[in-house]
Design a protein that fits this description.
The chain has 293 residues and is α/β, with parallel strands linked by helices. The chain has a single domain, classed as Rossmann fold. 30% of the residues lie in helices and 16% in strands. The chain has seven helices and eight strands; from the N terminus they run E-E-H-E-H-E-E-H-E-H-E-H-H-E-H. Strands 4-5-3-6-7-8 form a six-stranded mixed sheet, sandwiched between helices. A two-stranded antiparallel ribbon has the order 1-2. A hairpin with a 7-residue loop joins strand 1 and strand 2. The longest helix has 25 residues. The chain starts with a strand and ends in an 8-residue tail after the last helix.
Length: 293
C-alpha cells in the first residue's frame, strides 16, 4: 500500500472554548503497521472483528462501508448501494464486507436493512438481535413482518465466535435527530437494551453520527471545527442514552471525486477507538458465558 496522508483528531485544553482541537498527521501505512504487525485478535477462533451497522433508512450505513473501503483502498470505492435520500432501504439482504482480503486489516462490517418507525416496516428488532448473536447467515433476505427463526436455511443454529458481532454501531443522521418520532427512538432503545442483556461481557455499543455537514454551516465550511460544539452529540446522547465519548461524528464520501484527508480523519479516529473495544469484548467473552442463546 502506497503512502498516503490522513488525519486524526486529538483534544487539548484551550483558553477560549475550553476544548480546542488540533490535527495530528498519520498515514495509512502507519495504521497498516499497527494492525498487521502488532494488532492481534485475542481469540484464535475469531478471524475478523465483526461490526454491525444499524439505523434509520438513509442514515448512511452503506456509505460508511464505502467510506472505510475508500480509505484503505486509497481511492473512491463503491461496494454498497447507498440509499441517499430514499425513504426505503436499499439494503434488503444481510451482507458482510471484509476490509482486506489479505488479512492486513482483520475486521468486517455487516450491513442490514434500515430501521423504519412503522411497526411492520424496515428491519425487525428480533433480526438485529439474531444477527448480533451470529444466527443470521450472509445472504438472508430481511422480512419486516416475519423475523428469522429456526428452522431456516439462513438461520445458524450454533454460531461460533467468528460468527458473532463484537461491536454494535448505531448510525444516526445528525440533521434528523430532532425530527425522529418517539416510537422510532423506542425501537432503537429496544435494540440497545436487548444487546446489553446478551451477555455479562457487555458488547460495545457506539454511535456514528452522519450528515454533520447539514447541521452546522461552520462545520460544512471547515470540517476541522466539527468538535468545537458538543450540542449535537449531547442531543444524541440524551436521546439514545449513549455516553458522549461513544459518539463519533463521521463524514461519508458522497460528492467528492477523490480521497479527502479531512473526511478520512474522522473515520480513522472512530476506528482507532472501536477496534480495541471490540477486541476487549472478545477477551471478556472468553471468561463469561452468555445469558441468552
Amino acid at each position: 500500500m502506497k503512502e498516503s496522508t490522513a488525519y486524526i483528531w486529538r483534544t487539548h485544553r484551550g483558553a477560549t472554548h475550553g476544548l480546542a482541537w488540533s490535527l495530528l498527521v498519520c498515514t495509512i501505512s502507519a495504521l497498516q503497521r499497527i494492525y498487521r504487525g502488532n494488532f492481534q485478535i485475542s481469540n484464535e477462533g475469531v478471524r475478523e472483528l465483526n461490526f454491525l451497522l444499524y439505523g434509520p433508512v438513509g442514515a448512511g450505513k452503506s456509505s460508511i462501508i464505502n467510506t472505510i473501503k475508500s480509505i484503505f483502498e486509497e481511492r473512491q470505492y463503491i461496494e454498497c448501494l447507498a440509499a441517499a435520500e430514499s425513504t426505503t432501504s436499499q439494503t434488503i439482504h444481510f451482507q458482510k464486507f471484509s476490509m482486506a482480503k489479505d488479512g492486513s486489516f482483520p475486521f468486517a462490517f455487516s450491513d442490514i436493512m434500515g430501521l423504519e418507525k412503522e411497526l411492520l416496516k424496515g428491519v425487525s428488532s428480533e433480526d438485529i438481535i439474531s444477527a448480533l448473536k451470529g444466527h443470521v447467515k450472509e445472504g438472508y433476505t430481511f422480512n419486516p413482518v416475519i423475523p428469522l427463526t429456526d428452522p431456516n436455511e439462513y438461520y445458524r443454529t450454533n454460531p461460533g465466535p467468528n460468527d458473532k458481532i463484537h461491536c454494535l454501531i448505531n448510525v444516526m443522521p445528525a440533521d434528523k435527530l430532532a425530527m425522529m418520532a418517539d416510537d422510532f427512538i423506542q425501537k432503537m432503545k429496544q435494540v440497545r437494551v436487548a444487546a446489553s442483556r446478551m451477555s455479562e461481557s457487555h458488547i460495545p455499543q457506539v454511535v456514528f453520527l452522519t450528515r454533520i455537514d447539514r447541521t452546522c454551516q461552520m462545520t460544512k465550511e471547515d470540517l476541522r471545527k466539527v468538535y468545537k460544539s458538543k450540542k449535537i452529540r449531547d442531543k444524541c446522547s440524551n436521546t439514545l442514552g449513549v455516553p458522549v465519548n461513544c459518539i463519533f461524528p463521521v463524514w461519508n464520501y458522497h460528492e467528492e471525486t477523490g480521497v479527502n484527508a479531512e473526511i478520512n480523519c474522522l473515520m480513522l479516529n472512530a476506528l482507532t477507538q472501536i477496534i480495541p473495544w471490540a477486541n476487549d469484548y472478545i477477551v471478556k467473552s472468553l471468561n463469561n458465558q452468555p445469558r441468552l442463546e
